[in-house]
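Support reply, case 0932

Customer input (verbatim):
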Amino acid sequence: MRTAMGVWRWRRNPLRRPTDLFEAWVAFAALVCVVVVAPAVGWVAGLRVDGTLQQAVHAQRQERHLVPAVVVRPAPDGEPSEDPAAQRTAPRRTQIVASWTAPDGSSHEGTVPAAEEPPHPGDRFRIWTDARGRLVGRPLDPSAASFHAGTAGLAAAAGVALLAVTVRRLVVRRLMHRRYIRLDRAWAAAGPDWGRAGAGG
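Our regenerated output:
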């Protein structure tokens, strides 16, 4: 509001310098960007990211399956897990050798993290695999996808607002620099006659 009033105040002020009205318009444009443009950009960005992530969620739920597995025996020390997601999220869990049947009917056996501690041969648990029985990570949750989309939208809005404020500050700094240069020139021109009789000082 103060910015809009500033534009109106400088519109017909007899003391207005050319740069004063320009500075007021720059401030008004920055205000519009922060209040209107930034939220709009954040909203659009959030919707686009959410749409992309929700498609990924749907695709993962179509491609990944939760299948029953059976503990066969403890895995030998140092044997890596075949589940890359498990290596990232649960590196300290006990590794076991388990067997499972893929959705296509094929049988598999491999090293996976234990579902419970301590694991016992014959214990049953469930793991995520693709249609061919290869271990995969848990599919993305729709609510988690929406959260990430909201975060992306907020980041986009904040980026636009920060850009608008930064541009305004740079413009104002440049205008102030030009004003000081003009003032120095005017002072230098009037300086030799300052205080002399009949010089108008």
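We compared this against your earlier run and they match. Two observations from our side: The chain has a mean pLDDT of 81. Residues 162 and 200 are 49 Å apart (CA to CA). Please reopen the case if you see a mismatch on your end.
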